[in-house]
Amino acid sequence: MLIGVLHVAAHLTAALILMLLLELGIETCIQHKLLATSGYHTLYQWYKSVENEHFPDPTGLRVRIEQWTFGFYPACIKYLMSAFDIPEVMAVTRTNICREGMESLSRSGAAIYYASVFLYFWVFSTPVVSLVFGSYLYICINWLHIHFDEAFSSLRIANYKSFTRFHIKSDGDLEVFTLGVDKEYMCLMSPGAKGMEARQRLGFRAKIDGKDESSQKVSK
């Protein structure tokens, strides 16, 4: 019971520390004017400035395309860039929350903010969760002598496998059959097996009747 409580506490502590580090990183970027400088569409504004500078439109084609598509052409680019600029969305939304409170957010805005934070938190927490759980299994099998099955399964070792089958006889007795292998046996290919010729042409070493067959070079 105690080890389980400590395990859960370690996960909660790690999650809290990661969330604080994420907030600290966003706030540092805001203080250094790297994020939340001009709203949600900073990336689109930069794109428009580069486009106007290097790809001028003297004939007004872009304006006509915008009119023909009823504004869908620039809006699609704008919101796609906003979707890929997740740190900017997090920083701007966080600034609005700190200035006006959580009540100022709409339901869709809150959902977008939580989804953005979740994506980054997932990336940061994955290795930390693996470290915490691996340390838990290490302590359990070396000092507490529990969770041997879970620890062995986490290693993904192909060898040392076994299974048990039970059978109830007609007289009511229970029979137990256990089959286990220490090492996984290699499949040996017979000389006439399908694919052997292809392996030889590619230069792979194959085992035939327990003996290594030397690779053959392909003549050009």
Structural class: mainly alpha
On the 0 to 100 scale, the average pLDDT is 84
The arrangement of helices and strands along the chain is: HHHHHHHEEHEE
**Count of DSSP strands:** 4
Strand content: 5-15%
Main β-sheet, spatial strand arrangement: 1-2
Helix fraction by DSSP (H/I, runs of at least 4): 55-70%
Distance between the first and last residues' Cα: 69 Å
- Quickly count the helices: 8
Tell the overall outline. elongated
Low-confidence stretches: 206-220
Major sheet attributes: 2 strands, antiparallel
Radius of gyration: 31 Å
Which characteristics define this entry?
220 residues; mainly alpha; two-stranded antiparallel sheet; 4 strands; 10% strand; disordered C terminus
Structure, described:
The chain has a domain at 2-144. It is built from eight helices and four strands; from the N terminus they run αααααααββαββ. It has helices at 2-31, 42-54, 61-68, 72-84, 86-100, 107-144, 148-155, 196-202; strands at 161-168, 174-181, 206-208, 211-213. The strands form two sheets. It has a two-stranded antiparallel ribbon. A two-stranded antiparallel sheet has the order 3-4. Strand 1 (161-168) and strand 2 (174-181) form a beta hairpin. Helix 1 crosses helix 6 (107-144) and helix 5 (86-100) packs across helix 6 (107-144). It is elongated and about 90 Å long.
Summarize the structure.
The chain has 220 residues and is mainly alpha-helical.
